[in-house]
Design goal:
The protein has about 325 residues and is an alpha/beta fold. The chain is about 35% helix and about 15% strand. This is ABC transporter substrate-binding protein.
Length: about 325
């Protein structure tokens, strides 16, 4: 399975995109356009209720096909590349049982927990064993696999959930995590809340307007990485959820591809979406507009740059409904 961000950072910058056809012209009026930040007012995790208590033992099928029995959920270690597993565990009301975190888990309720990925996104067996977890919940976005195997040999139940980054995967992962921790009823309540928030977020897009073309750019100026997202990148799901068109998908791209001026100009985005830290890494909006091709797009000409917190945009966890609503408001606010 993919390990998304490390794979992105390993790609060279500004390699050529070929075979790009010219895209349709912009469909949004330039009046009143400008940069905007998608802001979720309350970024912390809201538990579905008090700790419901766990009905254990629970035997579940891990995403790798193995059968895992959990007999103790008093010391939970939720880890993955996106922070979504910890977000779900806290939302189930089990935050007081969590003993550690990955570097992608940045919401305030978890910020004081010890980090078990000291070298970036790789798990440290030593750091995990020191915490003595009773169960580890992870997915195949994080590793290395040898560490997870070492934990199992040490007698720690390791339950893997699906690492698919999509809206459809959220309820599946909530149910899988809730089942492993012996709180299936809390899982159903959380699924109902997330589904309601997602439905409300999808209604944020104004009716009767042509959908804007949005291009997601993954930029890390300090590392020389400049990529454009397409089908399966995760950003495409968020863009479609706000009633917009993913420009990279329309161009025929899949996952992430190196950015070129020709490819971006052909994509013709009305809006460019970036992560907040990525925008800062290129010295803000003006630095982004200085990248090849960005200033020649409709989005660049009208400065329609929308940024969103790195810990929210592609997490696909229990706060995704709120994230979609904030993204829709920022995209449609960026051009009044």
């Amino acid at each position: 399975m993919r390990r998304l961000l490390p794979a992105l950072l390993a790609l060279p910058a500004l390699l050529g995109l070929t075979g790009c056809a010219a895209a349709a012209p912009a469909t949004v009026s330039p009046a009143g356009c400008g940069p905007a930040t998608a802001v979720v007012t309350d970024t912390d995790v809201a538990p579905i209720g008090a700790d419901p208590g766990s009905a254990l033992p629970a035997t579940v099928t891990s995403a790798d096909g193995s059968s895992v029995t959990v007999t103790d959920a008093s010391r939970i270690l939720p880890v993955n590349l996106y922070g979504s597993i910890a977000e779900i565990v806290f939302s189930l009301g089990l935050g007081d049982r969590v003993i550690g975190r990955d570097t992608s888990t940045t919401f305030s309720a978890a910020s004081g927990l010890p980090v078990v990925t000291p070298a970036g996104h790789d798990l440290s067996a030593e750091a995990i064993l020191r915490l003595n977890p009773s169960v580890v919940i992870a997915d195949e976005s994080i590793g290395p696999p040898e560490v997870l195997a070492q934990l199992r040999r040490a007698g720690i139940p390791v339950v893997l959930v699906d690492d698919e980054q999509s809206l459809a995967a959220i309820p599946r992962n909530i149910r899988a995590i809730a089942a492993a921790l012996g709180v299936p009823e809390a899982g159903e309540r959380l699924v109902a809340r997330v589904d309601a928030e997602l439905a409300a977020a999808r209604r944020t897009a104004p009716a009767g307007t042509a959908p804007p073309r949005v291009a997601f750019l993954y930029v890390r100026g300090t590392a020389g990485v400049y990529l454009i997202g397409g089908r399966g990148a995760g950003s495409d799901e968020m863009i479609r959820a706000i009633g917009a068109t993913d420009a990279g998908t329309e161009l025929g791209l899949s996952r992430f591809r190196p950015l070129t001026s020709e490819g971006l100009i052909n994509a013709a985005p009305d809006v460019i979406l970036v992560m907040t830290e990525g925008l800062a890494s290129v010295d803000g909006v003006d630095g982004l507009l200085a990248l090849p091709g960005v200033g020649q797009t409709p989005a660049g000409r009208h400065r329609r740059i929308v940024d969103m917190d790195d810990g929210l945009l592609l997490t696909f966890g229990a706060r995704t409904g709120r994230a979609i609503q904030a993204l829709a408001e920022a995209v449609y606010r960026s051009c009044g």
